Each structure stands twice: as C-alpha cells, then as structure tokens.
Amino acid sequence: MTDVLDDAVRLASAGPPHESLEAFEAALARHVPAGLPGNSINRIYRKMVPRWHFAMLNDTERNQAFSSALQAWVRPEDLVLDVGAGSGVLAMMAVRAGARAVISCEVIEPVAHIARRIIEANGLSARISIVPKLSSLLTLGQDLPSRADLLVTETIDCGLVGEGILPIIRHARAELLKEGARIIPAKARVFFSLLESSVIHRINFTKEASGFDVSLFNRFSTREYFPVRISTWSHALLSPRVQALAFDFARDALGPQTVRVPVTPLRSGVVHGVLFWFELDLGGGVLLSNSPDNASSHWMQAVQCFETPLRVEGGQPLCAEVTQDLTSIHFALTP
Ligand SMILES: C[S@@+](CC[C@H](N)C(=O)[O-])C[C@H]1O[C@@H](n2cnc3c(N)ncnc32)[C@H](O)[C@@H]1O
C-alpha cells in the first residue's frame, strides 16, 4: 500500500510542476489503483506534508516575531526572497511590511499550489509569486527577476540546522541575493545543558525486556537529535546552559565545524544526553527561542541521548565536543 502511494507520487511528480492543484491531483489519481481503501489522496498528502505545519502556523509567538522583524527590516523598494513558502504566511507578512514584490519558493508541489491559493484569497497575488522549486534550483532572470534585497527563511527545526537553513542561506548568498542583502533570521546561537533523564533515555535505548538481553536492538536507536517537550518529562539539567555555536548568517562561511566547549556539572549525577535549543536574533531587536523555559514553542527542544550514560561529579569540568555539519549537530562528552 505504502509503495503503491509512493509510486503514485513519483509518477505524478515526474516532469515539470502541474498548472494547478487540480491538475496535480488528477495526475495522482491516474496512478493510484482503483479500489484502494480509504481516501488515498489524503493519505498521500499526510505523507508529503508534515503535520507540524499546523502547530507551526498556530505558534503565535513565532508568527509575531517574524512579522515584527519584517516590519523592522523591509524597505518599500525591496524584492524579497522567501525560501520555503509553506502556507505563504511569511511572504504575506513581507508584503504587509511594505515589500515591492516577493518571490517565494516551495519544494513540495501541492504545498506550493495551496500557498498560491491562500495568497490569492488574501488579495496579494499581484505582489507575491510562488515558485514550486527547491531554492537551489531557482534561476536568476527566470524565477527571480534580479538578486533580492532581503531573504526571509524559516527552514528551522528544533536543533536549528536540521531543515537545511545553513546550505539554503549559503546558496542564496552566493547566487540569489545582492551584496549586503538583509537576512531574516540575522543570527543564531545554540545552547545546551547536560541532561539527566532516564525516562527520555528509555524512549531511544533498551537493555533488557522480560528478562532477555535485547540491547542489540540499539543498533536502530536514533543517534542524532530529536524533538522533546522537555517540560513534560521527568528530568534534571545537571549543568548551567552553555553556548555551543553561534552563527552570523550574513557573514559566516556556514560550513561544517567542530568546537570544544568546557562544561561543569553543578552537581553529581548521571548524564543521559544533552538538551539543546536555539536563540534566533531575527533582526530589528527581535529574539525567538525554543529554550526549556518556553513551554509552548511548537519547535519543542532538541535532545541527543548517549548510548552509555555517564556518571559525572559536581564541580568536575568536562569537555563537550560539538560537531556541526550542514544539517546536523552532534555532541560528545570527554573528561
Ligand atoms: C518550516 S516550514 C515554514 C513555512 C512558512 N515559511 C512559515 O513560516 O510558516 C519550511 C517550508 O520550507 C520548505 N522547504 C524546505 N527547504 C526548502 C528549499 N531549499 N527550497 C524550497 N522549499 C523548501 C518545506 O517544504 C516547508 O514547506
């Protein structure tokens, strides 16, 4: 069933994007065999369009922060590039802030069609063009009339980099933006604390079940970070928050890096992993964070568990080796 629907998406998506949502759905329907149970188009949409879009759109703090930053930074003559249209909400905010025109790209074709519809329903089609493409495939002079004055992108996950913000901004700076273009977000910092939480560890690692050693199953554990709403789990933060990484999106090379940062536990305990989060400086004095204090952020927080928990002594300094590649951040602890 899953393969059948995957095949339908692949076949329907072959070739250039369709004229409309109806044309896309008609192409899908041609490849979904008749007689499949349930609403197969909706099943396909559930696979193509992550559910977090809804929580994200309803995160009023996030929306307000991006809107305020755009109000502060958009100038009347600006051509704005919005990478990752989603519903088109940031593109519409940019127009509300006074942008002359917005080009907004979206890689998931039906999402791009819906963004167009939403923009039309809000009477903003004359100022916003939705391009159903990956940002790295945009062509100057065709998709984008000229290099843009301002880039806005909210391609951010709980651990900042997992949705591709670093390569997206690197590429845009090189190929799609004017020299000195403004970028929202302007800067970001990543903070972490040592995390003691056997319950969180147990959602990603196992040892024995009903008297049997099942630890080989940890082969399938998630080694990278994943989202947790930390306030809902029994836990202790064994260290103060420590800054791991800092990015200036307009100036830094944004390549891979490894840094070593000292971290000293406040008390003795067992470190099951690290909890980390970002603080965005969107520009115009607007800050936005998914820190553990922000219990309602739709991003939640990022956690990376260590397979072997580490007993630590209060006051005994440790070193955190933080390895960041283009789309991930990994922590290792050494004495
Ligand atoms: C986190 S959502 C944000 C959507 C919208 N901008 C908002 O703030 O509500 C990111 C969107 O960007 C799209 N996307 C991610 N990387 C992209 C890229 N390189 N080019 C075009 N779209 C991308 C995803 O499909 C997703 O719809």
Topology readout:
Layout: H1 2-13, H2 21-31, H3 40-48, H4 52-57, H5 60-73, E1 79-83, H6 89-96, E2 101-105, H7 109-121, E3 128-131, E4 148-153, H8 165-175, E5 177-184, E6 187-196, H9 198-201, E7 208-209, E8 212-213, E9 226-228, E10 236-237, E11 242-248, E12 257-263, E13 269-283, E14 286-289, E15 301-312, E16 318-324, E17 329-334
Parallel strand pairs: 1-2, 1-4, 2-3, 4-5
Antiparallel strand pairs: 6-10, 6-11, 6-13, 7-8, 9-15, 12-16, 13-14, 13-15, 16-17
Bound molecules: S-adenosylmethionine.
Describe the structure concisely:
It contains 9 helices and 17 strands. With 335 residues, it is α+β, with helices and mostly antiparallel strands. The chain folds into 3 domains: 47 residues, no CATH class; 89 residues, Vaccinia Virus protein VP39 (Rossmann fold); 147 residues, Distorted Sandwich (Hnrnp arginine n-methyltransferase1), CATH 2.70.160.11.
Question: What descriptors fit this protein?
Answer:
335 residues; alpha+beta; Rossmann fold; Hnrnp arginine n-methyltransferase1; seven-stranded antiparallel beta sheet; 26% helix; binds S-adenosylmethionine
CATH class identity of the largest domain: Mainly Beta
Largest sheet geometry = 7 strands, antiparallel
* CATH fold name of the largest domain: Hnrnp arginine n-methyltransferase1
Please tell me the overall pLDDT: 96
The total beta strand count reads 17
Beta-strand share of residues: 25-35%
Number of helices: 9
Estimated radius of gyration: 22 Å
Shape: globular
Bound compounds, each kind once, are:
S-adenosylmethionine
The parts where pLDDT drops under 50 for at least 5 residues are none
Name the helicity range: 25-40%
CATH H-level name of the largest domain... which superfamily? Hnrnp arginine n-methyltransferase1
Distance between the termini: 50 Å
Question: What string, H for helix and E for strand, traces the elements in order?
Answer: HHHHHEHEHEEHEEHEEEEEEEEEEE
From the coordinates shown, what is the CATH architecture of the largest domain? Distorted Sandwich
